[in-house]
Amino acid sequence: MAQGYGVELYFDPALENQVLKAWNVLARRQISTQLIEMESRPHITLFSSPALDPPKLENVVKTFASKQEPLALSFSSIGSFPNEANILFLAPTPTLSLLQFHSQLCDALKKEGVEISEDYSPDSWVPYCSVAQQVPKNRMAEAFSVLRDLKLPVTGYAMDIGLVEFSPVRELFSFPLGNAAEA
């Protein structure tokens, strides 16, 4: 798996548990266990790069987080990307507040000289929360069927933003969104 860093948006406990339920159902059916094995945490990746300066980013992310409020999220659909990783995901409804949040983060990173790749630029970023990776092609239909039983939409809030190093996944830091970041 690729090495790098990711800026991730984390959920409130109830929403995180809904995503974990999907991970566990897919694991019990032996469709995909990778996210559990890599000790990932349910999240939406806001930005990823093969090389970053974590100490430099820590202040940027901390300041950014303190100026934000928890963000309402509603995972309303299931999707897959047409690539080799065979990723299945829950897609949040792309609200203006989510898109602005991402765009403002990109602006803050650019001011610090961080280059934003095309995949994460505000004009082409696709927000999603992985629920399975490397699903065997012959089990994709079954995996979709399992996820359709989730009773979408599942709603909650994005509460924290953090930086992880991968692979394996290791959280370097995270900060709560809003005034709680100053406490």
UniProtKB/TrEMBL annotation:
Q: Which InterPro entries match?
A: Cyclic_Pdiesterase
Q: Where is the signal peptide?
A: none
Q: What is this protein called?
A: Cyclic phosphodiesterase-like
